[in-house]
Amino acid sequence: MGLEEAIRSGKFIVTAEICPPKGTDISGLFSEAALLQGIVDAVNVTDCPRAMVRMSPLVLSSELIKMNIDTIMHLTCRDRNRIAIQSDLLAAHALGIRNVLAMSGDFTTMGDHPYAKPVFDLDSVQMLQVITKMNRGFDLMDNPLGGATSLYAGAVVNPGARPLGFVRIKLQKKISAGARFIQTQAVFDADLFNEFMDEFKSLNIPVIAGIIPLRSAKSAGFMIENIPGVKIPQAAINRMESASDPVTEGLKIAAETIDRIKENCQGVHIMPIGNHDHTKRLLEMCSLL
Amino acid sequence: MIVTRSKPIEEIMDQIDQIMDQKICVIGCSLCAGKLKTGGEPEVKNMIRQLQDKRVNVIDGVVLKHACSIESWESLIKEQPVISDAEVLLVMSCGIGVSLLGRLCDKIVIPALDTVSLGAALNDEILLEMCSMCGQCTVGFFSGLCPKSGCPKSQLNGPCGGSNDGECEVRERKCIWTRIYEVMEAKNMLSMLNETLSPTEYNRGL
Fold first, then answer.
1. Which CATH number fits the domain that encloses residue A207?
2. Does B138 lie at the interface with A, CB-CB under 8 angstroms?
3. What is the pLDDT of residue A229?
4. Which end of chain B lies in a sparser environment, N or C, as judged by fewer CB atoms within 10 Å?
5. pLDDT attached to residue B18
6. Considering its fold, how many domains does chain A have in total?
7. Both B108 and B83 in a single domain?
C-alpha cells in the first residue's frame, strides 16, 4: 500500500527519514532502507538538509522504489528556479516517485557552501501550486504537458512556532495550494504540539508529527543551536544528562512523546540522529509494531 | 540609498598588483558612500595613506558629488582635472558609479567597495534590504513593507518554518513577517495576508 492509500485508509502512519550520502557510495543507504523495510509506510529522502551538498534525492528515492519502499521526496526552493523545479518534478514522476514534500529549505549560509547564491525563485506555497497544475497536465505558464504528473504533495509546518495566528495564514495557503498531508518539524514538547493540533484540527488535513530520539544531552544542545525552530523542554535535557544509558533514555522520551500526541495526529515521522539502528525498537516501545 | 562596504585592502591590492606603478587616482562619492563613511572625504584620504604605505603610485584623490550621475566625461575632468592625469581610477562608490566611470573613460577602473543592499537612512541608523528591485512591486499587499527583500528566503506568502517567536533564523533581527503581521494587525488589514501571491514576473525587470 502506498502512502496516499495508507493515509486515506485512516491508519496511523509511520514514516522515517534518510539522508542521501555526501559522496558516491550509496551502499549505506541500502542497509538503512533494509532496517526500515516493512516497518514504515514510506521513507522520506531529504534534499541537501542544512544546506550541505549531498546526492540528489531523486536518485535515492528512485532506488528505494526499486526496493518496493514508498518514498516521500523532499524538494526545496533553495537551489532551483521554477524551471528546474518543474524539470525535477517531471523526472520524479518518470522515476515512479509519487510523494513530494515541498519546502523552502534551510538557508545557504547555514551549510557547507555559504557563498552559494540562494535561489528562492518560488516559495513553498507557489511550489505546491506548481505541483497541482502539473497534476492537471499543465506547467506553471499553462503550457500543456505531454502527460500529467500524479504527485501526492505534502507540506511542512513547525508546530512549535508561535504565534499560532501567524502559522495559520501560511498553513491555510499551503492547503489551498494543494498540500494533501503535513509532516512537522521535530516535536519534543507534547503540550505545544497538542495546542497546535487543537487550533488546526478543523483544517482537516492529515498531520504526521516529526520525532527525533535524542542520543545525548550534547546532541540536544546541538539541535537547539543548529536546527531552526527546535524547542526541547529542560526536563528532557535533564533526563538525558543524568541517564546512564542516554540512547535508551532518548528512545523512552521519544516513545512518551508519541504516546502523548498520537491521539491528536495521524502518524509519526522518525528522524534519528545518525542511523535507524533503534527505529524498530522505538516503534515497539510505543506499540506501533 | 545604495549600501556599500569596504573591500579588505588585500583584495584591493590583488586587483592593482600588476599596475602599481601606474598613476592612480582615488575617487570617492559624497552621496550614499559618503553618508555611510565608506567613500567620503576621510575614507578617500585614509585609502591614499594606506596605498602610499604599500608604495602604490597614488597621485591624488577626489570626492565626486554623485558618482552615479555625471553630465559627461568632459565636464567631469574640467571640474576635477587630476582625474585626466590618472591612468587608473580606484573608485570608492557603489557599483553604479564604478560602472559609469568604466563606461565613460579609457582608464583602468577598479572598485574599492562591495555593493550589498538597497537600504535607507533613518536618522543615524542604516536600514538594509528595503527593496530587492525584483521588478514587480507587491508591497501594496503588506502596507509598504517588503518581504521579498526583508526575508532572506524571499518568502511572498508568509514566514518560513524558521521564523519563531518573531525572530529570523538567518539574520539576528526580527522576522520581516513579524513586522508585516504587526503592521497589518494595527491597520486592521490582516485579512489581506490570506491572499496567495503568484510567483514574481522577473521578466519585467529584464
1. 3.20.20.220
2. no
3. 73
4. C
5. 92
6. 1
7. yes
Contact A130, A148 (CB under 8 A): no
Which one of B153, B158, B194 has the shortest CB-CB distance to A107?
B153
Probe site for chain A from B129, B148, B153 (most A CB atoms < 10 A): B153
| Contacts with A, B 186-205, CB within 8 Å | 193-194, 196, 198-200, 202
B167: nearest CA in chain A?
Answer: A229
Query: CA A260 → CA A12, A39, A191, A209, A247, distances in Å?
Result: 14, 21, 9, 12, 20
Domain containing B201: what range? 134-205
In the predicted model, what is the mean pLDDT of residues A78-101?
Answer: 98
Percent of all residues in chain B with a pLDDT value above 70, rounded to a whole number: 100
Let me know if residue B128 belongs to a domain: no
Task: For residues B142 and B100, state if they share a domain.
Answer: no
Cβ <8 Å between A228 and B162:
yes
Question: pLDDT of A156-204, one tens digit each?
Answer: 999 988 888 888 999 999 999 999 999 999 999 999 999 999 999 999 9
Quick one: B25 and B114 in the same domain?
yes
Mean pLDDT over each residue of chain A, to the nearest integer = 96
Count of domains observed in chain B: 2
Q: Is the CB of residue B172 less than 8 Å away from at least one CB of chain A?
A: no
User: Is B127 domain-assigned?
Assistant: no
Do the interacting molecules here have an ipTM over 0.90?
yes
| Chain B neighbors of A123, CB-CB under 8 A | 153-157, 160
A83 contacts chain B (CB < 8 A): no
- Cα–Cα nearest to A103, from B193, B161, B148, B195: B161
- Whether residues B52 and B108 fall in one domain: yes
Inter-chain contact B181–A166, Cβ cutoff 8 Å?
yes
Write the CA distances from B62 to A262, B2, B20, integer angstroms: 71, 20, 19
- Any idea what the CATH number is for the domain that residue B49 is in? 3.40.50.11860
Bridge partners, B61 (sequence order):
B26
Cβ pairs A/B, distance under 8 A: 87
pLDDT in tens, A250-267: 999 999 999 999 999 999
Say if B144 is an interface residue toward chain A (CB within 8 Å): no
* Size of chain A in residues: 289
**What is the per-residue DSSP string for chain B?**
-EEEEEPPHHHHHHHHGGGTTS-EEEEEETTHHHHTTSSSHHHHHHHHHHHHHTT--EEEEEEES-TT--S-HHHHHHH-THHHH-SEEEEES-HHHHHHHHHH-SSEEEE-EEEEEE-EEETTEEEP-S----SS--GGGGTT--HHHHSTT--SSS--TT-BTTB-SSSSSB-HHHHHHHHHHHTT-GGGGGSPPPPP-GGGG-
Q: What's the domain range around A215?
A: 3-285
Q: What is the mean pLDDT of residues B107-117?
A: 98
Q: Is B142 on the interface with A (CB under 8 A)?
A: no
